[in-house]
Structure formats: structure tokens, C-alpha cells
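Can't paste images in this forum, so I'm doing it all in text. The chain is below; anyone willing to post the predicted C-alpha cells underneath?
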Amino acid sequence: MPLSRLNQEQYAAATSSFSQNLIIASAGTGKTSTIVGRIGHLLGTGVKPGEILLLTFTNKAAAEMVERVAEYFGKDVASKIDAGTFHAVSYRWLKKHDKKVVLKQQRELKTLFRSVFEKRNFMNIEAEVTPYGGNYLYDVYSFYQNTELSQDFESWISEKYEEHEQFAMIYADIVDEFEALKKEYGFVNFNDLLLNFRDICKTKDLGYKEVLVDEYQDTNALQGTLIDAMAPPSLFCVGDYDQSIYAFNGADISIIGSFSTKFPEAKVHTLTKNYRSSLPILSLATKVIEHNERIYPKQLEVTRTGTAESPKLLAYDELFDQYHAIAAKIRDSQTPREEIAVIFRNNSSADGIEVGLRELDIPCKRKGGTSFFDSKEVKAVLDLYTLLINEADMMSFIHLFEYARGIGSAMAKEMYLALKNLGHGSIFYGLYAADESIKNPFEKRKVSHQLGLFDDFLELGAVGKFAKLGFEAKFMKNPILKHPKLTKDGASFLHDFYSLYRDLKGIKQPRTIVRKIVASSMYNRISDVLSSKRAQLKDGSVDEKQKTESLSRIARKMSLLEELSKPYNEHERFLNAMILGSSDLTQGEGVNLLSVHASKGLEYKEVYVIDLMDGRFPNRKLMQRGGSLDEERRLFYVSVTRAKDILYLSFAKYDKIKKINFMPSQFLYEAGLVPKDEAYRALVLKEAEKEEN
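Text version of the structure:
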């Protein structure tokens, strides 16, 4: 039984008879073992595996816990436990209720949102502030969904962003039209999964006897209401307020902080024995984090014995000297590469250290920032693939046609709807067998000055301007070419789209589909646009050497994507794995380059936390945009507690490119690694004045 391996505190938590339990599990105190022990206890007392729901922060974490349960109870039992992220579990339940649900990532829905936003005109409104752009308004709306439980969007905007009150009605109408489009096409995003699942929970008994929630400190208001809607007979929440680092995504630390108030009969368990870090490392982490307010009292105890290295401060005169020197230290280290992590707060820091490692031919893999699956070249392939099996996916079409010169998201949407009109509901019929009796397939837009709506559609254009492009006669007859704003480049892009899908028809193997997409003229156009943009200099010219290197990197990613497609024989299984599971997949081998957020839950023998300069870590810009010094301090705590044996903390004094002088991070002062001088006292005084104001 997994219970036999638990210490006294873990055992008491895992076997608790209370209906509501909160387990405060600090870094390295064995929370996974405790959760697995709890599941073992439930199974041993007669609870069926299908009556257990395990909610985790990543699907990878859920899989690892289920695998550990399987070691004791067998795969047949463990596989029946319902486990996964909030979103994965919600998606499974929604699929049971509605097979037509189409999950879309935020990036794709943001494209659809922009297509609605671009039809609005704010010019008639006199205002002292500039209205939000489409992308930023989408992020504001997403934050609203995660955090607001009662107010409508218009009222929320007016109250929270008073300077934008005069735009609130237009913002809200954009949101309403966006939601109507999503409903029409069956699109749901990650927030919708939770909202729709919450509605199911309110009307249906899900049959769970206990719900276990991992990383409870990172739940947001929406996830909190979802747990409330489930109303399970027993609730087992595990978390650590000192590791709450997702406020930017709506995580609400008050949820874990108010657990005892919300459930007066609940039992709070505290795991105090740290099995990961050495005493000097844990002491440093504790010394800094204790500057934050204590919500639940705790005193960690180091279980490891023997001699231990003290954390070392690395100070460098110049920023890039730091990166090169750390790369050299890693080269000379006796620690296996896979057991070394470099943790960064900002993407620019990761770029510097990655270059330093590459120059020394040290392999590394990067997680955090822009991942493999978030790269535009990979997303373009997946968009093309998605349309092949689901032509109703308007957002994939829009996103792809934004790569065509002269076609923005609004025009791409017009073209999609026109093709659908020409094909009587099918864009591919509209493309290959258009109803030529429909002379004007483009819908006329309504006009409303109050809501910023206007009509700028012109008379249909002539297709003669495309005569010299060498298109076949059948394609030239398509009324879609009459869009008055369609340029020759746009028409050529559309023709490449036409040719690609003609070639893909009937292919069954995902690997072959990926290979043909990557080899197509359309994808070559997209690669050219991306590589040219990435190689563009300040004067607008393109550095051909950089462009060639960029094309080479794109080609490498395409080879990897083809490798990932090998095990799959079904289109939908491949795409679902790429969309839902992509955040848990990593690429490459060697030294681990991790953002602080990506390092959560991981541990390494040797850790470097870099760029510990005030302004960078803590990140003052993000603090000004709604973050806090407390959250930055929790990020520092998470980063240093990834280290088991060796910890290096580094900073630089000067950036020769930007000509900026740096002072050490406030956290280095708090850790006692840098003397508290006049500069530090001035910094603390400045912070105190900000809090008073």
C-alpha cells in the first residue's frame, strides 16, 4: 500500500476522516506521495476508482499520479480514476453531452475576436484615452471570465477601468457578437470548458465520492466556483500559498487563504519535512519568503543529513559576461546535463543564456516563453490540418489567410463566409464547385454609429486583373475573386490553398498529411513571411543570412512535428494530442532552460537563477501592471526551491547595449547575500511610499 511509505504527517492527511481537508505542502515535502496515499486509502476503504476525481495543474502530473496508483492496484483500477486538468476533465464531460464541441486555443479565438473588433470605428467618440486594441481587449475579456462572478462585462469595464467607460458599450457589443459566432460554429475555449461544465455540475450528480485538487493555491475564481458546483461529499485540497504564482492568469490566493473560513469544520494539515533541498538552500528560501505575510503558520524541517554547499552569489560587470560565464561553469560542471536547470524570469534572459550554451556546443532544451507548439510555423500546419477534417473551423481559415499580403482578419472572415455561401454551407464546395448563380456572395454589414459599426464594402471588383497569373479556367470563374480588396498576392495565396486541398483529398495517414502540407507552395509562402519578418532590420530591410537561419529552424521544427505524428493513424487523435497535450510535451535534451512558471513542480541537482537585478527580478514593469512584490517574492521562492544540492544566484551590474546600470535584486538583499546599503534602503523607502499611495 502507498500508505506504508508516508511519514506521520503525510499519513494523518492521507487517512483523514474529515469531509474537507486542506494540506499545506511546501516545496519538497512529498505532496505527490500524500495524494497517491489518499487515493490508496479511498480505494482501500471501498470507494470505487470511478468515484474519484483528481484535478491537477498539468495532464503530465495527473498521469504520473495515476501511474503510481497503478503500481499498487494495477492498471485496470488506476485507469478508471478520472484524472486530469480542470480543462481536460471538463472537455471529456462536454464531449459526452455534445459531440460537436470544437475546442479552440486562445490564439485562434483571438483571431476571430479581431475579425469582429476590426469592424468597429471609435473615431466618432471624443476621449482622452485611446481605446483598447483587439488583442488587448480579448485578454481583458478573458481575465473577466476567470475572475468576475456576477457583473456583466459592460458594467465590469465601467467600474474597473473608469477611463474606458465611454467605450464600454462598444466593447460589450463586440463580446456579444464574438460569443454569438462561437455558439454558431460550436467553438469553445478553455474558459468556456469550465463555464459549460459548471452548468452541467449544477444540474447533474457526477457520481464522485471525493474530489482531490492539486496546486490548490493556483485556482482562480472560475475554477473555485466549479468546485463549489460539484459539491462533492469529500474534498481534499493540496497546495502552498508560498507557491501561488499565477495571479496574472487570474489565480486568487485568497481561495486557499479562506479555506478554513469557508469550511469551518475542515481540517488543515501541514507537511513540514522537506526531502528535496539541502539545509543552506532551504534556509535561504525561507529567509526571503518570510517577508511575505504568513497565512498559515509553518516551520520546515530538513530531513537530509551530511555536508551541503551553501548557495553562491555570482556577480558580473556586464550582462553578457554573465551569460557566457555561466555557460562556461556548466561546461565545467560534473553534474549530468539533464540534472542542471537555468531558471529565468524574462524571455530575454533565456535568449542570452541559450546563445552562450550553443556557442560552447552544450545541448539545451527550453520550456517557458514561446514553446514549440506555440510557434507560428507549427500552428500554421495544425490550422491547415484542422480545416481538412473540419471545414467549419472558421478561425483556422482566418488565421491562415492573415499571412496573405493585403488580407487581414476581417477580410479573411468575409472570404470564408462567402465561400460557405457559394458552397451552400461548405467552403470546399464553394472553392471547387461554386454556385456561379450567386453573383455577390459577400454579406452586407449593418450600420450602427452608436456601437461603432460601419459599412465600408465597395462594389464588386473585376477578375481580369488576375488573368496573367496563370490560374486554371475553373478557378478563375469563382465569384470569390470578385472581392474588391483582393490583391494579386491574395489571389495567389488563395490559389495555393485551392491546390493544396485538392492534393490532400483522401489521404488517411497523419504523417503523410503533415509532410504534404510542409512541402506545399502555400506553406512555403507562410514560411517565407515568418522568416522575413524575423530577419527584418530596423530600416525595414531583410538580413538574408538571418532569414536563411530562420528557414532552417522552421525546417527543423517541421521534422520534429512529422516525428510526433508517426504513432497516430487517426486525424482527430493526432490533432487532439497536439492541442490538448502540447503544453506538457518538451523537446530536445541537455541543460534545462526554464521560466519560473515552467519550473514549478520540478527539481534538479544544480540550479542557476539568473538576472537577479532589480527591475528584472523582481519585474517592476509587471508589478506596475497589476502584479505585486509578494508575488515576485513567491516566484523567487519557487525558483530557488527547485535546487536539491547546488544553487547559484547571479546578477550583472551593467548592460552595454542599452547602457543601463543595475542594482542587485531586492531578494539578494533579503537573503543576506548583499549588504543592505544606502541604495537598498532607498529602494525599500520607495516601495513603502508606493504602498501608502
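DSSP finds 31 helices and 18 strands in the chain. The longest strand covers residues 643-652.
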